[in-house]
């Protein structure tokens, strides 16, 4: 892809205020992928998440690059852009992006760019698989949520375009 883009490869926790530093069950409860999980399940999921901030204009992921993590928007606004010129925007906290990590060939099908300074929670694919395999009931609920998210996104995409 083009060298003009700013792409953040490393996932490192950012310096943050005390109350934002730790990923808690309260933060995960707002994420669409974790809807319906118990407090105990959310607490087990929290250590698998890392916070990352992106400045305006930075790319969270680039279309065609290896999909090895997904993102939960906590704050800000992210533009999803497809190479063919199709764009849409995710502004709602709790929405996920980057679910291409689940499907071979594990490449992002769109680029995601921060429209304003944005904060996300990141879950790397090996951590996600470990999480859903730890507890079959919890894993099934997360995968059901993910299937619904993907179906809704595809329906929205078809309806709009």
What does this protein structure show overall?
This protein is an alpha+beta fold and 161 residues long. The protein has a single domain, classed as Sandwich (Jelly Rolls), CATH 2.60.120.10. The chain has helices at residues 18-21, 25-29, 39-45, 125-134, 136-160; strands at 50-54, 59-61, 69-75, 78-81, 87-90, 96-97, 111-114, 118-124. The strands form two sheets. A four-stranded antiparallel β-sheet has the order 1-8-3-6. It has a four-stranded antiparallel β-sheet with strand order 2-7-4-5, with no helix packed on it. A hairpin with a 5-residue loop joins β4 and β5 (87-90). The chain is globular and about 40 Å long. The two termini are 25 Å apart. Mean pLDDT is 87; it is low at 1-19.
Characteristic terms for this protein:
single chain; 161 residues; alpha+beta; Jelly Rolls; four-stranded antiparallel sheet; 32% helix; globular; disordered N terminus
């Amino acid at each position: 892809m083009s060298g003009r883009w700013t792409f953040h490869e490393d996932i490192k926790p950012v310096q943050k205020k005390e109350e934002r530093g730790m990923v808690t069950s309260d933060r995960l409860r707002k994420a669409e992928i974790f809807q319906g999980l118990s407090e105990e399940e959310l607490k087990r999921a929290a250590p698998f998440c890392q916070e990352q901030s992106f400045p305006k204009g930075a790319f969270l992921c680039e279309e065609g690059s290896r999909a090895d993590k997904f993102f939960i928007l906590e704050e800000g606004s992210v533009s999803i852009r497809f190479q063919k010129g199709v764009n849409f925007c995710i502004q709602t906290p709790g929405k996920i992006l980057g679910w291409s990590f689940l499907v071979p060939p594990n490449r992002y099908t769109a680029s995601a760019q921060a429209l304003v300074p944005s904060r996300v929670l990141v879950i790397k694919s090996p951590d996600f698989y470990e999480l859903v395999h730890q507890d079959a009931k919890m894993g099934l609920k997360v995968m059901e949520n993910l299937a619904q998210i993907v179906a809704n996104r595809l329906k929205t995409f078809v309806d709009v375009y």
